[in-house]
Amino acid sequence: MHKAGFVNIFGKANAGKSTLMNALVGEKLAIVSPKVQTTRHRITGVVSTVDYQIVFSDTPGIIDPKYRLHEKMMGAVKSALEDADIAMLIMDARDNVAENLELFSSLRLKATCILVVNKADLLKKEALDEVVKQCEAWGKAEVVAISALKKDGIPALLERIVGLLPESEAFYPDDTLTDKSTRFFVAEMIREKIFHLFDEEIPYHTAVAVTQYQEKTTLIKITAEIIVTRETQKAIILGDKGSSIKKIGTLARQDIEKFVGQKVFLELFVKVRGKWRDNDIYLKEYGY
Ligand code: GDP
Ligand code: K
Ligand code: MG
Among 54, 138, 218, 277, which is disulfide-ready with 69 (CB 3.0 to 4.6 Å)? Predict the structure, then answer.
């Protein structure tokens, strides 16, 4: 009997959704940062064995939309709510339990739920046991405590997921890793560096678009644009004598080379597009 299904991850900002998806898939597909709203798309990661196929979806954190961009992000959450066979509800073990349970209840999920208490590494055993107890009292989901960062409890979680998976043929060929293109991941890896290197509003005003992706004989030549909303932000991204953009380029190139398994020549440009976050044409152009 072969099992297969969609296992979609939901939770508040920074609960560790993207870290968990990467740990379960065993590949860094989703970018991670300590900042909220890092993830803007629904990203799938497929795990296939002879016995089962799991199509994981990482989603943006659940927020109140303030820009058209945010509405698109919550649209990605909504689509994932609708097609989940299993909903993986994840919370930070240090966060308010009642608040998280209220959020999860408000999703009105019809799918089978697993409640993942993440960041177990940050709590003492007694405190963690207490959180797990409170979560179990909710009564609507199996509760599993893990550390996505340290990869603690991942095999046990996977086992629970497989146990709940419906009987089904595979949805994708068994060598499928994701539904997103290499160009998408290249743009995301550049965006991740911006989340890591800049504070305050810069990451939230930034989009990245890959404008050229050329496979040459010995390397891949990639050109990308970093889009910001103001000239002052452009100056910050560039940095003194171009030092900051150089840093973004170096760090991103290392990640991209690891991902594509080839040498990469990466060229970055910065463009100012006033209100791209509220402009449907720009949003579409930048992949939202
Ligand atoms: P998301 O916004 O829900 O996708 O959360 P991320 O995966 O981007 O993680 C947010 C932050 O929490 C990052 O700094 C992660 O490194 C950190 N994080 C995620 N999982 C764990 C964990 O199990 N333990 C600890 N200590 N930190 C974690
Ligand atoms: K984050
Ligand atoms: Mg995320």
Answer: 277
